[in-house]
Amino acid sequence: MTPYAKFGVIGGGAWGTALAQLVAADGAPVRLWAREEDVVAAVNADHRNPVFLPGAALSPSLTATANLADMADLDALLVVVPVPFLRAVLAELPAGDAPLIFCSKGMEAGSFAFPIDMARDLAPSRPHAVLSGPTFAHEVAAGLPTAITLAAADTDLAAGIARALARPHFRPYVSTDVVGAEIGGAVKNILAIACGIVDGAGLGLNARAALISRGFAEMTRFGLSRGAQAETLAGLAGLGDLVLTCTSSNSRNFTLGQGLGRGEPAEALMADRRTVAEGAFSAPVVAAAARADGIDMPITDTVARLVAGETRVAEAIQALLSRPLRSEGR
Ligand SMILES: NC(=O)C1=CN([C@@H]2O[C@H](COP(=O)(O)OP(=O)(O)OC[C@H]3O[C@@H](n4cnc5c(N)ncnc54)[C@H](O)[C@@H]3O)[C@@H](O)[C@H]2O)C=CC1
Ligand SMILES: O=C(CO)COP(=O)(O)O
């Protein structure tokens, strides 16, 4: 019998809804907090989330609320709020000791904080973990086979949450490397934008493969400098997710990049979207953090400048290709 019988999910976007459905599919009670009243109404009345996860039929044991106070009496909370909005939501979370499992992929502007760093500030008494890997929401909601990293410094917590979330088609692999899991997810979003740019600009598959390899080298340099383990970065939360989102137009980050690669202005591509491409938020943040640490991240830096409209695609590609030749190990 798992001690995590009642899960809550904070954040009713595509990924929060899919995770809620993962747990609720066999009839387990799950409570979902969504900030949008239309999402709450549709989940409760129609067992659907037409705003963020259209097409997925949800279990009746999944109920939604717009009131964070309703998330007090649960055994574990999956936190799936995009990183730019996470601090404000954590500050409003009711007091409690249920573990927080962070499922968002990004780094906060200004503080350079990852979700776990925010939790140390705002919910220090709660245990915390990170869930990250190659996991398109609509595939998890449809019950397609998926593997993911579940990282927590506390090995009992990681094992307990992994057991509670595991399903025949959903395999969590446990790790103690929370830093690696967070860095892998944040950096791959930025690199997915870069791969989308290559695709949108028609630069070919050799260029994409080069970008995935050299992007992975960037992720590894940045991760190792911050204490991540190489095997985490080469695993599901790093390379695995990088490959998924750099090769599929199901990725919002990749499609944002495709638009940039076709020459569409970043501002227009970002306007009016209710869904997030976290890499657009994280690129300038990771670029600034790397610069401050003296870590070379040319692809991340280029994505940051393209998203900010500070350079054009042709110019950026020319600048990347004219960098001095160097050894592959750097
Ligand atoms: N969609 C996916 O397949 C996956 C997404 N993720 C990550 O999960 C996180 C959440 O992404 P999705 O669920 O896909 O979101 P989404 O793009 O489907 O929906 C946007 C979400 O942002 C929230 N939001 C917008 N403005 C807000 C505000 N001012 N305050 C609080 N929340 C606000 C909305 O309520 C909604 O939950 C991101 O970090 C993403 O990188 C991770 C794995 C898979
Ligand atoms: O993180 C994801 C899959 O692992 C989803 O990627 P996008 O946010 O780019 O759609």
TrEMBL record:
| UniProt keywords, alphabetically | Cytoplasm, Lipid biosynthesis, Lipid metabolism, NAD, NADP, Nucleotide-binding, Oxidoreductase, Phospholipid biosynthesis, Phospholipid metabolism
- Enumerate the catalysed reactions: sn-glycerol 3-phosphate + NAD(+) = dihydroxyacetone phosphate + NADH + H(+); sn-glycerol 3-phosphate + NADP(+) = dihydroxyacetone phosphate + NADPH + H(+)
Active-site residues, Swiss-Prot/TrEMBL: 188
Residues binding NAD(+), per UniProt: 11-16, 85, 137, 252
Q: Tell me the Gene Ontology biological-process terms attached to this UniProt entry.
A: carbohydrate metabolic process; glycerol-3-phosphate biosynthetic process; glycerol-3-phosphate catabolic process; glycerophospholipid metabolic process; phospholipid biosynthetic process
| E.C. no | 1.1.1.94
Q: Which GO terms describe its cellular component?
A: cytosol
Superkingdom of origin organism: Bacteria
Which residues are involved in binding substrate? 105, 252-253
Cellular localisation: Cytoplasm
Describe which pathway this protein belongs to, using the record's wording. Answer: Membrane lipid metabolism; glycerophospholipid metabolism
PROSITE patterns, sorted: NAD_G3PDH
Q: Which residues bind sn-glycerol 3-phosphate?
A: 105, 133, 135, 188, 241, 251-253
Q: State one molecular function term (GO).
A: glycerol-3-phosphate dehydrogenase (NAD+) activity
Query: Which residues are NADPH-binding?
Result: 15, 35, 105, 137, 252, 276, 278
Glycerol-3-phosphate dehydrogenase NAD-dependent N-terminal domain residues are 8-157
Record Pfam families: NAD_Gly3P_dh_C (PF07479), NAD_Gly3P_dh_N (PF01210)
InterPro entries per record: 6-PGluconate_DH-like_C_sf, 6PGD_dom2, G3P_DH_NAD-dep, G3P_DH_NAD-dep_C, G3P_DH_NAD-dep_N, NAD(P)-bd_dom_sf
Report domain Glycerol-3-phosphate dehydrogenase NAD-dependent C-terminal positions: 177-318
Alphabetized SUPFAM superfamilies for the sequence: 6-phosphogluconate dehydrogenase C-terminal domain-like, NAD(P)-binding Rossmann-fold domains
Question: In which family does this protein belong, per the annotation?
Answer: Belongs to the NAD-dependent glycerol-3-phosphate dehydrogenase family.
Q: What does the protein in this record do?
A: Catalyzes the reduction of the glycolytic intermediate dihydroxyacetone phosphate (DHAP) to sn-glycerol 3-phosphate (G3P), the key precursor for phospholipid synthesis.
PANTHER family from the xrefs?
Answer: GLYCEROL-3-PHOSPHATE DEHYDROGENASE, GLYCEROL-3-PHOSPHATE DEHYDROGENASE [NAD(+)] 2, CHLOROPLASTIC
Q: What is this protein called?
A: Glycerol-3-phosphate dehydrogenase [NAD(P)+]
Name the lineage: Bacteria, Pseudomonadati, Pseudomonadota, Alphaproteobacteria, Sphingomonadales
